[in-house]
UniProtKB/TrEMBL annotation, chains A, B:
Glycosyl hydrolase family 67 catalytic domain span: 152-471
Catalysed conversion reaction: Hydrolysis of (1->2)-alpha-D-(4-O-methyl)glucuronosyl links in the main chain of hardwood xylans
UniProt domain Glycosyl hydrolase family 67 C-terminal: residue ranges: 472-696
Record domain Alpha glucuronidase N-terminal: where: 28-148
Residues in the signal sequence: 1-22
Enzyme class: hydrolase
Database matches in PANTHER family: ALPHA-GLUCURONIDASE A (PTHR39207:SF1)
Full protein name: Xylan alpha-1,2-glucuronidase
């Protein structure tokens, strides 16, 4: 009785400790709360009572710690660490590191799982039921450990835990656009995580370790820590020493460190008069600099390069091409196993249709890049707009390794003020059919290496978290980070399945919470499209910061930095003709799509105005005119935000007060902004087409002049963007 | 037995919850940990079992919540909330709000305590021992509640709790130099706390409430939320609405909101051609704008103004003087009870000795300011240097209200990387004897209103916290914020007593911790003086960011922006002659000090070179030459940091791992910087005087050219300061 009471006391103490942890979002989806379903918790308590750690490698120690912490939280009871397995053991390791794992003879499964895959198996060991996590490498074991905890956090029945999994995409990398002064370009969650002034001394900063855990829990295996608009100083000893400290923290989590580099670094750092990639002195400079980097970071991942794009230096400055530039760096990195991610985000002002440029510039170079170069391509041909057709480079670059670049930070989705789960956008991109080898040649398949003979593949996400307590400021931006990681591991996951995983781990498993919330996860991205740029409109943003609307914007240093360039709205119609009668960008796709996009009637309505300039009275599938459909979409966007508000209020009882209040307030901001977008754009387009609003659609709250004024006056919450002058 | 065990279980649950709260510094000195001394905890558990709240005012509700939380944490047991007092009650309120308080007949004490003072009394109520917290206002009750909790957190014996206290200084205000884009000028702890983009919707942000608690716990009753280098937009509806939301959060904590305003706002906001304070249209503009502010914030505190200083606009632009400018604003604020804090931080480039300027500019205006103007004066005549003699304006402005401005953010003390508790600097300023009315006319006495017939007095601290988890980034910057608040309440507190309070509440009451740590609290400021600018040297900083050394700096847009201007080191000697043979700044002091500073032999050595240009062989009290003493001081500074490191390591067992590791790493950075300062300055001065180092003093690690190069190359961790170009 006393013993029972003592155990109850210990449990209560534990429970108190766990329950008291503030729900401030810091723990992301790794909250390890006690299983709410009491019957299931009871089963978990029987099945997961201890962990048996095989060896002392840093990675296995991390796996052990994560399992102990996670299981303790989930079961609400202490987790023992015996030397040999008993009933309820979780045994983990590789056949090399663990005799027990070896004895389970999982080699048939392991052989197919590569370096990073894992098996979770339910077995008996000497008659005792155990759970085994096995892999071919310690990092695979770590991934398997996180996956087991994911299964438990999402209340998976014990008899459904057995699984095996290996990642689809080789390089699963997050990108940070962090400047060295800690301001984050397109970052809306505080200052950079990297506290440079305290590195390398303070590498034990809990933020770094938790950052690594968060990424490792998704199987992310690389991070580029500095802005692609790079600062050459990153390659100096001063900063390499600091970066090396971060690399040390990340290494046991299986995360390699990469750096963005500035192409003319030899000129900036050592006074060279050229950065010509074919100049032997320049080549030697890079070889020596790369060698220095590897002295600091022996398993350094490589470089990410933005060159000849938006003013960044590059090989074209020296009359060379992208392959020349990339290959020079690749050659320097090759002896050390490093790679070059070379970005295809290029659009020179004089080139005509910006849509076409990356393809026109890179296709002639297909097959000319070295094996350790990976061309990193944004999902769409313009720049992370709320909806873009996929970049024609996908399915066209056949002899060049590629990576897909996605955006988690909400540069075009309302910064950290709007709820806009990106799962639907990411899966839309992965499921896009390029028709490169007939129907079904999706981008996901290509990235999984199933279509072309790529030596490397990759997926990258610009995450730009910051020192906000919850990493992302808006709690729901976390869901997009989560979705990216899950998709890089398994390109076939659905947006809703990922969304549900995230909701369960981050908030609650209660179906009365999950079901309504799935609605929010399903519509929030589309709402953002609808109240900004429906039917394939794009880039109606106020220039520079991209927060609010400025569809009236028609003057800039470059035509393709005006909204008018993109929408071309006139009295007669709207949209960008990219068919043969226009820029013919559609020829860049494979024939099936070229044909499909040639005719407005066969072009999907959600990308219609990407490809066609149509009259305002063009008839849509709904029977409405184009103008009426446009207004309908704008109204739908606003209504969807109102719906999200109602849904969020309906689940109040399932959410802690702090996060409930925060999201509720943010939805108010989002509704205000959605209405502002809708009203501003509709006012403007009306001023162009002179048409009345459809019946039932409310008049904008103000006149067009008001919205034009607001473009200048409304506060834009971006520490990176230069403040307006004259204040 | 069962009941006993149940209570033990509840206690354990509570204990688990409390113990599990991470020691990440977020809770500052309001941790409310269970009393470590078990005997004392037992007494507290008997004496503090419940709280009796008298009324429902927002402020009393906050007091109740704080007492409940605090007592629960300190005693480790649940705190009941009965309607009537019993044994162990804490009864709190005003005689008006609480019949119990009224019945205790504390009026004799209360009558002397003003609006904000409080009494803590141990009494019997109907034969039951209770603790009473009484005041004349609800805010006084709140202050008393925080003070009781302070007493308990510092393990005050029960029989020593009775006390009464009223604040010495009327306006106890914190200043933030936060820009509207959230970058904080001279802020080293993240982005601004004010998340403008989410205001006014998200005013329930826990940060705002905890910010208010932190300040209220010290008795701070005002906050200026935006940069003195002001942005005129703060006075637009858009931002007033946001500021009003913050004011709503702060109000029940007794904290008034103030705003920094730009003097030429009528020109910037409404296209006026002048901001002449004597122009009736300009006056009317301000009257209307002030009226608008009070519509948003009925108890708005007033304005803080930086005018005709470092390029900011001001009355002198229109051939008016400071009084003209301040009075115009004061007149507009007067009907609403607002005040103007008008900063005396002025130094025009052509004026000669910068030291003299504020005095020369403001003394002729003494008595010309309206009653609701308060001239806010930095402690020293230059700018928050590690040691400055006090500003001669103190004790000289007899007919003008004044406030003392201090700096908590470590602009000149190593940002958030160095440990430099400012208690010694603050008390040095408050204890400075102005001799205005004979010996003992300290600045503290003046600010307490005991010397001149001021209508208002104030103390202000530039705190510049940020969104770092622990508010200040370096954990020990918290101690300076704490010291400021305590001194504004009681100017007679000693630095070490305050330091001990802070250590006890923030870390541990264990004397094996306190005693060694007192050493650190005593020397850290002086170490910062010693390894930078001993013996009254000043402003040897690298220009602009003020992080590292550049004593060689002798060219700038203005002479008083060079280090040479301040140290004037030549082959023959060093220091600034401010006696009659020089700028005669010493005449600005009262005679006793003028006389004292006239002769180097009677000038305190720690400010010697503030006032005298002396030969390198000038003999110091120690018998060393000036040069030898200077080197000795530099060496002492480095040795003091090494001592701080050892001391910190010696108390490892008393500190949680997270904060221990962080401070340990920061001390490594500080030692590196201290050596760098010492080596750079000594190299430079040696290059000027050609003298050898004293025996036993180590040669600098590098040559002077190295340190000059490092001025450009060493990374400066400041998001606000413009990054070096060409990278």
């Amino acid at each position: 009785m006393i013993r029972f009471l003592v155990r109850v006391c210990i449990s209560l103490t534990l429970f108190g400790a766990l329950a008291a942890q503030a729900e401030d979002g810091y723990r992301m989806w790794l909250r390890y709360q006690p299983t709410a379903d009491t019957q299931l918790r009871s089963q978990y308590q029987q099945q997961f009572t201890n962990i048996v750690q095989p060896g002392d490698s840093p990675t296995l120690q991390l796996a052990a710690r994560e399992l102990a912490t996670g299981l303790r939280g989930i079961t609400g009871q202490e987790i023992a660490t015996p030397d040999t397995p008993t009933t309820g053991s979780v045994v983990f390791g590789t056949p090399e590191s663990s005799a027990v794992i070896k004895s389970l003879e999982l080699n048939d499964q392991l052989n197919a799982l590569g370096d990073e895959g894992f098996v979770i198996a339910r077995r008996e060991y000497r008659g005792k039921p155990i759970t085994a996590i096995a892999a071919n490498s310690d990092v695979g074991v770590l991934y398997g450990s996180f996956h087991l905890l994911r299964l438990l956090q999402t209340q998976t029945p014990v008899d459904q835990l057995a699984t095996q999994s290996a990642p689809a995409v080789e390089h699963r990398v997050v990108n940070h656009w962090d400047n060295l002064n800690r301001v984050v370009e397109r970052g809306y969650a505080g200052l950079s995580l990297w506290d440079w002034g305290t590195l390398p001394a303070y590498k034990d900063n809990p933020r770094y370790k938790d950052y690594a855990r968060i990424n490792a829990s998704l199987g992310i295996n690389g991070t580029v820590i500095n802005n692609v608009n790079a600062d050459a100083r990153i390659l100096t000893d001063q900063f390499l020493e600091k970066a090396a400290a971060l690399a040390d923290v990340f290494r046991p989590y299986g995360i390699k460190l990469y750096l963005s580099v500035k192409f003319n670094s030899p000129m900036l750092l050592d006074g060279f008069e050229t950065a010509d990639p074919l100049d032997p002195k320049v080549q030697k400079w890079w070889q020596e600099r790369v060698k220095k980097v590897y002295e600091y970071i022996p398993d350094f991942g490589g470089f990410l390069v933005k060159a000849n794009s938006e003013g960044q230096p590059g090989p074209q400055d020296f009359n060379r091409n992208h392959a020349d530039g990339a290959n020079m760096l690749a050659e320097a990195l090759e002896p050390f196993g490093g790679v070059v991610f070379w970005r295809a985000f290029v659009y020179a002002p004089e080139q005509g249709d910006r849509f076409r440029e990356a393809y026109d510039e890179f296709m002639p170079l297909d097959g000319k890049f070295k094996d350790n170069v990976i061309v990193q391509i944004k999902n769409g041909p313009i720049d992370f707009q709320p909806r873009e057709p996929f970049s024609p480079l996908f399915g066209s670059l056949e002899k060049t390794n590629i990576a897909l670049e996605l955006q988690v930070t909400q540069e075009y989705f309302g910064f950290s003020y709007h709820l806009a789960y990106q799962g639907p956008l990411f899966t839309e991109a992965l499921n896009a059919d390029t028709y490169a080898k007939g129907e079904g040649t999706t981008i996901g398949k290509i990235l999984a290496g199933d279509v072309f003979d790529y030596k490397h593949t990759g997926m990258a996400a610009v995450i730009n978290p910051g020192n906000s307590r919850n990493w992302t400021s808006h709690p729901f931006v976390q869901s997009s980070w989560y979705a990216f990681g899950r998709l890089a591991w398994d390109v076939n996951l659905t947006s809703s399945a990922i969304g549900e995983e995230w909701l369960r781990q981050t908030f609650s498993n209660d179906s009365d919470f999950i079901q309504p919330m799935q609605e929010i996860m399903a519509i929030s991205r589309e709402a953002g499209v609808n109240y900004r740029m429906p039917l394939g409109l794009t880039h109606l943003y106020a220039q520079g910061h991209h927060y609010g609307p400025a569809p009236w914007h028609d003057k800039s240093g470059r035509p393709d930095w005006t909204a008018y360039y993109y929408h071309q709205a006139t009295e007669d119609g709207i949209g960008f003709d990219r068919t043969q009668s226009g820029s013919n960008a559609i020829e860049q796709y494979h024939d099936e799509l070229t044909n499909k996009f040639t005719d407005p009637d066969t072009t999907p309505e959600d990308i219609l105005l990407w490809f066609h300039h149509l009259g305002w009275n063009y008839q849509m599938n709904s029977g409405r005119s184009l103008w009426q459909e446009l207004v309908h979409k704008y109204d739908t966007g606003v209504a969807q935000v109102e719906q999200m508000q109602k849904t969020w209020e309906s689940v109040k009882d399932y959410v802690d007060a702090e996060r409930y209040q925060r999201v509720k307030a943010l939805l108010q901001v989002q509704l205000r902004d959605a209405k502002h977008w809708r009203d501003a754009c509709i006012s403007y387009f009306q001023s162009v087409n002179g048409l009345p609003l459809p019946k039932g659609s409310p008049e904008p709250a103000h006149d067009l002049e008001h919205y034009k004024r607001m473009e200048k006056e409304l506060y834009v919450p971006d520490p990176w963007y230069p403040e307006p002058s004259g204040h």
